[in-house]
């Protein structure tokens, strides 16, 4: 018993130090965003202020960068999600050596440093766009950044969608075809709805990854500026609590989104548990003696049966 | 344009190899239907166009071209494709020996930065693993559902704060008049403010910090998939705790460990923002040197060569991890 | 009667592996036809070929007299019930049943009326708006049937649809399937490895082994008059006694076996001198402790397993041969002593001699 107590103590100490390390720097930044000194300062607190947030809101360069980042993010989602989806579907239709080869190519961007992707995109498009006669249109910071980011964000999307696709029963699609659906109909009615959760998380992930990307963007953005490149310039010049204010907003948004996600997830879990209970009740009725064909009965009050707690209810996609 | 012909040729070869493999595959007994029969014309066309665009135009061609460019001299635009545009090892020679006018035999600054980057990245990757493994194990096998949810929520908070802001936070913490020096001063420990940033403590801490989550989630997913009964059984048989971790949990979690380490190494060695913000007075990391080829010297061929050297280091690391762990590429990229 | 499905010299190969060898078969309209065989015998491949998901390497598939070459699964007058049912989890019960009509562009009003009628037929009307994961196994089964019937197929194909069900429910669903088939009057082609299912439901059964149809016939003839030793040993329990044919006489053949000289029917007209196996069903053995009759095997009782209505005896004969005998438990001979000598006799017309 003593060793169990000691064990618990060690775990607790470890957890506290870990989360101090993980959240401490953020806390420091958040505090400095509300503190009055113009150099970001945590202690002493010389006075509470929202000045840095106001300055942030009226900082034209940052706002311009934000706008560019959002535009790029939207285009990256529009490119990466359909491409990742296609990549995942193709993956399920080729086998053995062809599959390994294909997989190597489409996963390579995930394992390539962002700086290399950015550089290769810029140098290639400088010459290629001229050759294709599209220099005006293509050799543009935003276009190049969308292309460069999409090359590896598409891989992320593919991996997320593939994880779900692996659980798809091809019989589902065959059943639709067998009932007379055309190929696009089977795709739209069966496969897409099945993949919808994965497609949605891929889209969210694609946008956020694009939004926070710096390594690739700093090369491919050319003369334009995104939020991250503006930030990098500012931080290199010096420290300002305005940057702390921005970080505070990002942390808050993440927190709100995570909580909202958690709530939605719980509601879904409860609904699934309810359905399972209904099914079990029907099963019981079916197998009870003297009822070969279950008479339809009210399912409002199904007999209670503890359903196993969904341990895997929370799933965080790794990038 | 002469510059792209090699790129086109190489791309064609890659596509041809793929088609050849497909044909062999089909001959060996591909079950059922052909590609278009299976997907229909419309969807099939979408699949081919999307994947073709992605793999050929955004992955293969830029990469091949970058390598191609790294073997060319820096020329003004008017002379590109001219008689002076010949393949050369000049850019790689520069990495090793420096400019022909310098007095030193070796380009020590760049070579040292490269090796410091690689060695430090390996060490930081191992440190990250050591920090993250207990948390991942706790989350996957020990925590109750309620605690797990709280831990996951706490982990998510810093997730979307980007590297620049993370580095910035460490600057607030560690700069000469920063928080930590303030605390040390208050405790009367440090006589003078300690220059953490000059000593690169900030850089290493921030690099470690930035990639904690990259390590935790693959580990967590891998450990989570293990049946807890296996661990109970091992404990029941009297195995000591370190034995259980070394011979029961870690072998099972091998794909997750390899995956976390690979990503962690790649992102650490390829980090651009953190060294820029916290790099201290001397340029220590390799990526700022690559950056300077482009935006200080405007020598793109040399920059391409340096980027390729960095890429090669990552490839070697991935291959080493695969070799040591005995895993396939597909198993570590989930 | 007209022919619903016709296979003409159909063979199916995957690479160098032959899944189905050259097969000819005609299935009548309105027939309940089963393919029975162990897993991997090619029965599912054959079913997928009829439904259009696999193409025959050689030969022709005709449905309703029309050659199906080049006609996709979505254009064929067949409906398939999948082994795991493949119900659409994102749709309600009614949407599942109406899916085939929806993709055919049937107007909503017509569609709804038809779905309601079908749901009523399978007693699922109260569950129309439920999601699939709210249903029990039997309910899902009936949704799958209603969904397939909604498109009014000429032929309904069923791929072991009962295998996931509880034993009791399975027996109930057998009756129900048979009733539905008789009510709608279309051809059912049923795949199973469960001989009980095949024999109780079908008008005719095709027994398959290693990509080949071994025998086609009604349940009775398959059981009582097997044409190959695979059929004799796969369908029902059977005692197999190998030996050499001594002589043939009319429709009977006499074998020299390690347990004595025995006779049985010789349906395939095997000649004297060849190796053959004599099959005799456990329930057709007559046990007596008196003197052995002309066609009998001297044995000793090895063990007895009481199973309610029947008792299964394991009898040890010469040369290590084991003979199984089933006796109605109420019968006096059902309770012998272990070790007691018994003579297991039979009518030569009940036994069958087959090659191999």
Task: Give the helices and strands of chain A as they follow along the chain.
Answer: HHHHHHHHHHHH
Structure summary, number of beta strands of chain A = 0
> Count of DSSP helices of chain A?
12
Largest interface comes to: A-B, 106 and 111 residues
Span between N and C termini of chain A? 40 Å
Task: Explain what you see.
The complex is a heterotrimer of chains A (319), B (334) and C (356). Helix content of chain A is 73%, strand content 0%. By secondary structure, chain A is mainly alpha-helical. Chain A has 2 domains: 12-49 and 242-286 and 313-319; 61-238, MetI-like (MetI-like fold). The longest helix of chain A has 47 residues, at 241-287. Chain A starts with a helix and ends in a 32-residue tail after the last helix. Chain B has helices at residues 2-27, 35-39, 41-70, 90-97, 108-142, 145-156, 163-174, 179-186, 201-210, 212-224, 228-236, 241-252, 254-269, 273-278, 286-295, 300-325, 329-332. In chain B, helix 7 runs antiparallel to helix 9 (201-210) and helix 10 packs antiparallel against helix 13 (254-269). Chain B is an all-alpha fold and 334 residues long. The longest helix of chain B has 35 residues, at 108-142. The radius of gyration of chain B is 25 Å and the shape is flat. Helix content of chain B is 72%, strand content 0%. Chain C has 356 residues and is of the alpha+beta class. In chain C, helix 2 packs parallel to helix 4 (137-150) and helix 3 crosses helix 4. Chains in contact: A-B, A-C, B-C. Chains A and B meet through helix 1, helix 3, helix 4, helix 5 and helix 7 of A and helix 1, helix 2, helix 3, helix 5 and helix 6 of B.
Helices, strands, pairings?
The complex is a heterotrimer of chains A (319), B (334) and C (356).
Chain A: H1 2-34, H2 51-57, H3 60-91, H4 96-107, H5 114-131, H6 135-138, H7 141-165, H8 170-178, H9 183-212, H10 217-220, H11 227-237, H12 241-287
Helix pairs in contact in A: 1-12, 2-12, 3-7, 3-9, 3-11, 5-7, 7-9, 8-9
Chain B: H1 2-27, H2 35-39, H3 41-70, H4 90-97, H5 108-142, H6 145-156, H7 163-174, H8 179-186, H9 201-210, H10 212-224, H11 228-236, H12 241-252, H13 254-269, H14 273-278, H15 286-295, H16 300-325, H17 329-332
Helix pairs in contact in B: 1-3, 3-16, 4-16, 5-9, 5-10, 5-13, 7-9, 10-13, 11-12, 13-16, 15-16
Chain C: E1 3-14, E2 17-28, E3 32-36, H1 43-51, E4 58-63, E5 66-67, E6 78-81, H2 93-103, H3 108-121, H4 137-150, E7 155-159, H5 167-184, E8 187-192, H6 195-201, E9 204-209, E10 212-217, H7 219-224, H8 229-234, E11 239-249, E12 252-257, E13 260-265, E14 275-280, E15 286-288, E16 296-307, E17 310-316, E18 322-328, E19 341-345, E20 352-355
Parallel strand pairs in C: 3-8, 3-9, 6-7, 7-8
Antiparallel strand pairs in C: 1-2, 1-4, 4-5, 9-10, 11-12, 11-14, 12-13, 14-20, 15-19, 16-17, 16-19, 17-18
Helix pairs in contact in C: 2-3, 2-4, 3-4
């Amino acid at each position: 018993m003593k060793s169990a107590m000691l064990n618990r103590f060690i775990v607790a100490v470890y957890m506290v130090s870990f989360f101090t390390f993980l959240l401490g720097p953020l806390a420091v930044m958040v505090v400095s965003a509300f503190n009055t000194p113009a150099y970001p300062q945590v202690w002493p607190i010389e006075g509470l202020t929202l000045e840095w947030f106001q300055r942030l809101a009226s900082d034209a360069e940052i706002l311009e960068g934000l706008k560019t980042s959002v535009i790029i993010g939207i285009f990256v989602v529009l490119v990466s999600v359909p491409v990742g989806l296609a990549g995942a579907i193709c993956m399920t239709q080729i086998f053995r050596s062809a599959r390994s080869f294909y997989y190597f190519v489409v996963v390579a961007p995930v394992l390539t440093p962002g700086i290399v992707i950015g550089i290769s995109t810029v140098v290639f498009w400088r010459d290629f766009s001229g050759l294709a006669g599209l220099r005006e249109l293509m050799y543009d910071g935003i276009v190049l950044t969308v292309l460069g980011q999409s090359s590896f964000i598409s891989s992320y999307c593919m991996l997320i969608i593939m994880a779900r696709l692996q659980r798809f029963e091809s019989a589902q699609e065959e059943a639709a075809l067998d009932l007379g659906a055309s190929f696009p109909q089977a795709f739209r009615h069966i496969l897409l709805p099945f993949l919808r959760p994965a497609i949605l998380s891929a889209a969210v992930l694609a946008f956020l990854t694009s939004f926070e990307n710096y390594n690739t963007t700093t090369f491919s953005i050319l003369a334009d500026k995104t939020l991250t490149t503006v930030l990098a310039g500012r931080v290199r010049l010096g420290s300002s609590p305005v940057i702390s204010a921005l970080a505070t907003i990002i942390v808050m948004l993440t927190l709100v989104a995570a909580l909202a996600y958690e709530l939605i997830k719980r509601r879904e879990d409860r609904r699934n548990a309810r359905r399972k209970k209904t099914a079990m009740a029907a099963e019981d009725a079916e197998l009870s003696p003297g009822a070969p064909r279950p008479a339809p009965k009210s399912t409002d009050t199904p007999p209670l049966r503890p359903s196993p707690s969904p341990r895997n209810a929370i799933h965080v996609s790794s990038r | 344009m002469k510059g792209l012909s090699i790129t086109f040729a190489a791309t064609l070869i890659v596509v041809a190899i793929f088609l050849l493999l497909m044909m062999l595959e089909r001959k060996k007994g591909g079950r059922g239907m052909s590609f278009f029969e299976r997907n229909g014309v419309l969807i099939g066309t979408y699949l081919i166009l999307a994947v073709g665009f992605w793999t050929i135009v955004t992955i293969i061609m830029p990469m091949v071209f970058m390598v191609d460019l790294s073997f060319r001299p820096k020329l003004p635009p008017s002379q590109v494709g001219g008689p002076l545009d010949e393949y050369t090892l000049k850019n790689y020679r520069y990495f090793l020996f420096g400019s022909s006018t310098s007095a030193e035999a070796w380009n020590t600054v760049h070579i040292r930065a490269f090796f410091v980057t690689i060695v430090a990245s390996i060490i930081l990757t191992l440190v990250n693993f050591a920090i993250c493994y207990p948390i991942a194990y706790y989350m996957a096998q020990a925590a109750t559902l309620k605690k797990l949810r709280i831990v996951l929520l706490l982990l998510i908070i810093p997730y979307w704060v980007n590297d620049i802001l993370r580095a910035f936070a460490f600057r607030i913490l560690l700069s000469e008049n920063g928080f930590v020096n303030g605390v040390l001063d208050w405790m009367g420990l440090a006589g003078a403010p300690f220059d953490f940033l000059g000593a690169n403590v900030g850089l290493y801490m921030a690099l470690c910090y930035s990639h904690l989550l990259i390590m935790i989630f693959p580990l967590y997913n891998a450990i989570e998939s293990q049946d807890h009964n296996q661990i109970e059984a091992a404990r029941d048989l009297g195995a000591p705790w370190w034995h259980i971790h070394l011979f029961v949990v870690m072998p099972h979690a091998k794909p997750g460990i390899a995956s976390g380490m690979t990503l962690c190494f790649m992102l650490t060695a390829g980090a651009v923002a953190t060294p820029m913000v916290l790099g201290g007075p001397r340029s220590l990391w390799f990526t700022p040197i690559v950056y300077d080829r482009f935006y200080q010297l405007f020598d793109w061929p040399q920059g391409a060569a340096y980027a390729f050297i960095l890429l090669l280091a990552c490839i070697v690391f991935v291959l080493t991890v695969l070799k040591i762990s005995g895993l396939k590429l597909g198993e570590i990229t989930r | 009667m007209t022919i619903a499905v016709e296979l003409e010299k159909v063979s199916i190969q995957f690479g160098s592996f032959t899944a189905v060898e050259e097969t000819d078969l005609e299935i009548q309209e309105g027939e309940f036809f089963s393919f029975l065989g162990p897993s991997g015998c090619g029965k599912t491949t054959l079913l997928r070929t009829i439904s259009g998901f696999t193409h025959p390497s050689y030969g022709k598939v005709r449905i309703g007299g029309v050659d199906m070459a080049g006609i996709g699964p979505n254009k064929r007058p067949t409906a398939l019930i999948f082994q795991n049912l493949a119900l659409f989890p994102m749709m309600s019960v009614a949407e599942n049943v109406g899916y085939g009509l929806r993709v055919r562009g049937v107007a909503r009003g017509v569609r709804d009326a038809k779905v309601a009628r079908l749901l009523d037929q399978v007693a699922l009307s109260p569950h129309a708006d439920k999601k699939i994961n709210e249903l029990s196994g039997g309910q899902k089964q009936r949704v799958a049937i209603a969904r397939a019937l909604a498109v009014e197929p000429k032929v309904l194909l069923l791929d072991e649809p009962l295998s996931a069900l509880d034993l009791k429910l399975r027996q109930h669903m057998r009756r129900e399937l048979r009733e539905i088939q008789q009510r709608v009057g279309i051809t059912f082609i049923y795949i199973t490895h469960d001989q009980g299912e095949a024999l109780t439901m079908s008008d005719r059964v095709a027994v398959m082994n290693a990509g080949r149809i071994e025998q086609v016939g009604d349940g009775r003839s398959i059981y009582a008059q097997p044409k190959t030793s695979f059929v004799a040993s796969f369908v029902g329990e059977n005692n197999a006694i190998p030996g050499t044919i001594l002589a043939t006489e009319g429709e009977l053949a006499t074998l020299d076996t390690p347990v004595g000289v025995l006779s049985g029917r010789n349906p395939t007209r095997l000649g004297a001198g060849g190796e053959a196996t004599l099959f005799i069903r456990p329930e057709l053995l007559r046990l007596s402790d008196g003197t052995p009759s002309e066609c009998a095997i001297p044995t000793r009782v090895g063990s007895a397993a009481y199973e309610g209505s029947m008792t299964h005896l394991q009898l040890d004969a010469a040369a290590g041969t084991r003979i199984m005998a089933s006796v109605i438990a109420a019968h006096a001979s059902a309770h012998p002593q272990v070790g007691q000598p018994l003579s297991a006799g039979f009518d030569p017309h009940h036994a069958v001699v087959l090659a191999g």
